[in-house]
Amino acid sequence: MNKIPVGIIGVSGYTGLELIKLLLSHPIFEIAYLGGSSEEEIHSIHPSLLGVFSQEVQESDCKSIASRCKLVFLALPHKSAMEYAQKLLELGVKVVDLSADYRLSLENYETNYCPHLDPKNLAHAIYGLPEWNVQQIKQASLVANPGCYPTATLLGILPFISKIDGESIFVDAKSGVSGAGKNPSPTSHYSRINENLFAYSPLNHRHQIEIEEKIQHFGNHSLQVNFVPHLCPFTRGMLVSIYAKLKAPLDPIEVLTQAYDSHPFIRIRSTPPEVKYVSGTHFCDIFAKVLGRDLFISSSIDNLLRGASSQALVNANLMFDLPQELGIPKIAYVP
């Protein structure tokens, strides 16, 4: 099969680096363009790539990108991403956007982020959660890659939506420091995070509305999501605990098996998952237990991979009618 040229705009961050690493071992996609804010060799930005991959990062120009690439990954902050997406789509380039710019309805986006610059394409964007949206992703020109917290939460809760009693659920989520991004901040300094644990943006984190909106979309049910994220003293990984009340007792493993039996990157565990078992992989490990009508769900992902870059690559595979497993990591960073 002929190679498919792809580009990455926004290579300086963690998700940009993870995309490069994934694409270097992909049998069909090849990196044809790296876009950044300045022109320099990629190993100057990511020294770990010295002797592994050599390519110049160029100042991002949509016409130049369109002449070289069939698809572009946008590993950019919100607002910046949509400025490129609308131009690339006009030039016939497919886009997987890793920012929040195309994940939400116009109303929810503008309430939680900023005025939207591209409502036309927002109306046609496909939410890239493959286990729940595979056929739509295959037909898409623009895929909105889900957030890391919503990915772990939605994969855990969606099989149970029709069985939940009440109007709300509680989500306790914990993420490694890489989820805060590459640029240092007061909360990610070593002296702050080392041997420490704390909640941030409790009950008003931006991912809360994303989870609520997609529960309504995929589960056809309105739920208030009480979402509390925590920053933890490890580099990568995410663990989400979900608490809900059921209409009636049930076998949670049977529910999960029925939902995910044919999906290769969902692992249903008989014991609670651990971050280390998914670190470096695209797997989402899920465990659930019921006591009477009380439901507990625990799910774990690698926030930089399943929560960002490897999920973006699965979406790209599907957009070009390739097997979703192509180039996707399965071996965890253990020990």
Shape: globular
Number of helices: 12
Instruction: Kindly provide the radius of gyration, computed on alpha-carbon positions and rounded to a whole number of angstroms.
Output: 19 Å
**How do the strands of the widest beta sheet line up side by side?**
3-4-2-1-5-6-8-7
Kindly provide the name of the CATH class of the largest domain. Alpha Beta
List the helices and strands in order. EHEEHEHEHEHHEHEHEHEHEEHEEEH
Tell me the domain tally. 2
Helix content: 25-40%
Low-confidence stretches: none
Q: Could you please say which CATH topology of the largest domain applies here? A: Rossmann fold
Helix/strand-derived category reads alpha/beta
Mean of residue pLDDT values: 96
> How is the biggest beta sheet arranged?
8 strands, mixed
State the CATH superfamily name of the largest domain.
Answer: NAD(P)-binding Rossmann-like Domain
CATH architecture of the largest domain: 3-Layer(aba) Sandwich
Strand fraction equals 15-25%
Distance between the termini: 37 Å
Provide a concise account of the structure shown.
With about 325 residues, the chain is of the alpha/beta class. The protein is built from twelve helices and 15 strands.
Structural account:
The protein folds into 2 domains: 4-145 and 308-319, 3-Layer(aba) Sandwich (Rossmann fold); 149-301, Dihydrodipicolinate Reductase, domain 2 (2-Layer Sandwich). It is built from 12 helices and 15 strands. The model has no long low-confidence stretch (mean pLDDT 96). Strand 7 (126-127), helix 7 (130-138) and strand 8 form a beta-alpha-beta unit. Helices cover 30% and strands 25% of the residues. The strands form 2 sheets. Strands 3-4-2-1-5-6-8-7 form an 8-stranded mixed beta sheet, with helices on both faces. By secondary structure, it is an alpha/beta fold.
